[in-house]
Design a protein that fits this description.
Blueprint (H helix, E strand, L loop, with lengths): L4 E9 L6 E6 L3 E5 L6 H8 L7 E6 L2 E2 L5 H7 E4 L10 H11 L7 H8 L16 H13 L5 E5 L7 H16 L3 E5 L3 H7 L2 E6 L2 E7 H6 L4 H8 L1
């Protein structure tokens, strides 16, 4: 792979973001921080083609993103939103949905996926409406993992959760990164970014102001905008 980067974003512009460039290495956790309206969520939507750039290009595994079939991109680059967006029905109905589309669901996968998100296999038959918010978010993550994505895009997935659920999901993300899954997550929680990220991207007004290794960027911000943001 070109420079060992799994994903390269080169000078990408849309109506919401301007001249965005960054690289994501295999197995890295990248946190995107910044004020509301900075374009953080819009950037995630670009990375699995919910929107396409009007300028610039995104390269995934040495091939321009638009050259892949959309269904392949949605499997390989999974997106989990702030609200779990589960389908009606049981936990198993949700887990098997993606793999069933391509005839790849095996019933043994259900308990394995729930174990990853620290839920017992007894949850498979439960209606998703009976689950707590933290449980629903973990099932949403498991549903995305059912497609065996190489990249996980997470949009504020822990922002509405209790501390125990946050801790469980952070542990899961770290373990996934060790399995060589690349994670790009929007978070408003600077402490979370510090705890688990290899790299941080700071956005404001639709553009990247600063990016770098987590410890360096948080402890030694170079721009006035980031210095001010970290004080707030």
């Amino acid at each position: 792979m070109n420079g060992n980067y799994e994903l390269q974003v080169k000078n990408v512009t849309t109506p919401r973001v301007s001249d965005i460039s960054f690289n994501a290495s295999l197995g890295n956790i990248i946190s995107i921080i910044g004020p509301s309206g900075a374009g953080k969520s819009s950037l995630l939507l670009l990375l699995n083609r919910l929107i396409d750039p009007i300028k610039g290009e995104i390269i995934y595994r040495n091939k321009v993103l638009t050259m892949y079939p959309i269904i392949e991109i949605r499997r390989k680059i999974g997106l989990v939103f702030q609200t779990s967006s589960l389908f009606e029905g049981t936990v198993e109905d949700n887990l098997k949905y993606g793999p069933s589309l391509i005839g790849r669901w095996n019933k043994k996968r259900g308990p394995e996926l729930l174990e990853k998100v620290q839920l017992s296999k007894e949850y498979l038959g439960r209606d998703v409406e009976q689950l707590s918010g933290g449980q629903q978010q973990r099932v949403a993550l498991a549903r995305t993992l059912a497609n065996d994505p190489e990249i996980l895009l997470l949009d504020e997935v822990t922002s509405a959760l209790d501390l125990q659920s946050v801790d469980l999901i952070e542990q899961l993300l770290v373990s996934l990164s060790k399995e060589k899954k690349t994670i790009i997550m929007v978070t408003h929680n600077i402490s979370q970014a510090e705890r688990i990220s290899d790299k941080v991207i700071f956005m404001k007004n639709g553009t990247i102001i600063e990016q770098g290794k987590t410890e360096e960027l948080i402890n030694n911000p170079k721009t006035e905008e980031l210095q001010q943001f970290l004080k707030e």
